[in-house]
Design brief:
Strands 3-2-1-4-5 form a five-stranded mixed sheet, sandwiched between helices. It has seven helices and five strands; from the N terminus they run βββαβαβααααα. It has one domain (about 1-155): 2-Layer Sandwich (Nucleotidyltransferase, domain 5), CATH 3.30.420.10. The protein is of the alpha/beta class.
Length: about 200
């Protein structure tokens, strides 16, 4: 199966294609799709989607994996991000792809073993695990790789969900819910599945 990982943005969108047919995931391509910030939103979306669709037709992935957004301080930014997420989802569903969404803390936990890891820590671990050179690409690209790798490795993902459900203070916001008590592993798995994620 070929998985597409997407870190959406209306100016810079990270993408990554992973082939999971072998024993270990193989990176087919990763990078960023960049639109001029001076352009109107609709033109930026058109440019990003046009470039993404070329890649979709080239690699023909079966699954789309995106990081879920559950809390956003700026409503306008959240609305803009919703536009690009929706456009990406429609383009992928037209091609018959499945859709999977994971909370940021679950992605970090799955990749690094720590739900509070920084973007740099996630990037370093992703490139180390995949055996590729980090280079000078923006973190949007490594985030997309992390999201695709999270979906490609169901065992670490299940462990990440379990860890997310058993750690943290009683009043800490987790990205999925605000808990007065610790969530169970089953509760986290149920919530992931309800948001479109898959636990295998």
């Amino acid at each position: 199966m070929i998985i597409l990982g997407i870190d959406p943005g209306s100016i810079t969108t990270g993408y990554a294609f992973l082939d999971t047919d072998g024993k270990n995931p193989k990176v087919l391509e990763y990078g960023v799709l960049h639109a001029a910030e001076t352009k109107p939103l609709e033109d930026r979306l058109l440019h990003i989607l046009t470039e993404l669709e070329k890649l979709l037709d080239k690699y023909k992935p079966q699954a789309l994996s995106m990081e879920g957004v559950f809390f956003y301080k700026n409503p306008k930014s959240a609305l803009v991000l919703g536009h690009i997420r929706g456009a990406v989802l429609v383009a992928c569903r037209r091609r018959g792809m499945t859709y999977n969404e994971y909370p940021p803390t679950v992605v970090k936990q799955s990749i690094t073993g720590k739900g509070s890891a920084s973007k740099d820590q996630v990037a370093n671990m992703v490139f180390a695990r995949l055996g590729i050179d980090r280079g000078d690409l923006p973190l949007d690209a490594s985030d997309a790789l992390a999201i695709a790798l999270t979906h490609a490795n169901p065992a670490p993902l299940a462990g990440a969900v379990a860890a997310s459900g058993s750690t943290g203070s009683s009043k800490k916001k987790t990205g999925l819910l605000t808990r007065k008590k610790k969530a169970t592993t089953k509760q986290w798995m149920d919530l992931i599945e309800k948001m479109g994620g898959t636990i295998q």
